[in-house]
Design goal:
Elements lengths: L1 H17 L6 H11 L4 E3 L2 E3 L2 E7 L3 E7 L6 H15 L3 E6 L2 E7 L20
Length: 125
């Protein structure tokens, strides 16, 4: 239980020191995995999530990682909150099979916005 409380403190400390370093979000996420020990030990070797690809769209960057078998779900559930504080950006986390998708938004997500017909586009939902 104590180890779960140490994870947010660790992420905040790392984020503070790397804030002015100019690291990319991808490198920061990898650093967070290592420092918070989001890994499993298999045959005496630590296995961390493996970066697969990044997908950029108009409002965000989606980082896709392959999770090793046995990563505790409690660690992953806390990850979104901690990454938001560490990256200073909104973050959403989702799972697809054994893939972890970390979507980092470039700016704050508005809770409400003004609707207009300009928002409607053909062949979209």
């Amino acid at each position: 239980m104590l180890s779960l409380l140490l994870i947010p403190a660790t992420f905040i400390t790392v984020a503070y020191f790397y804030q002015s370093n100019g690291m990319s979000d991808k490198k920061k996420i990898t650093t967070f995995f290592e420092i918070a020990k989001i890994c499993v030990q298999h045959k005496g070797e630590l296995q961390y999530p493996i970066f697969i690809k990044e997908i950029k769209d108009d409002i965000s960057m989606n980082y896709v990682y392959k999770l090793p078998l046995g990563v505790p779900s409690q660690l992953i559930q806390k990850l979104a909150e901690v990454l938001e504080e560490g990256l200073y950006k909104p973050v959403k986390i989702s799972f697809h099979q054994r893939e972890l998708h970390i979507r980092v938004f470039s700016q704050q997500i508005p809770e409400m916005w003004n609707w207009s017909k300009d928002l409607l586009k053909e062949h979209t939902w």
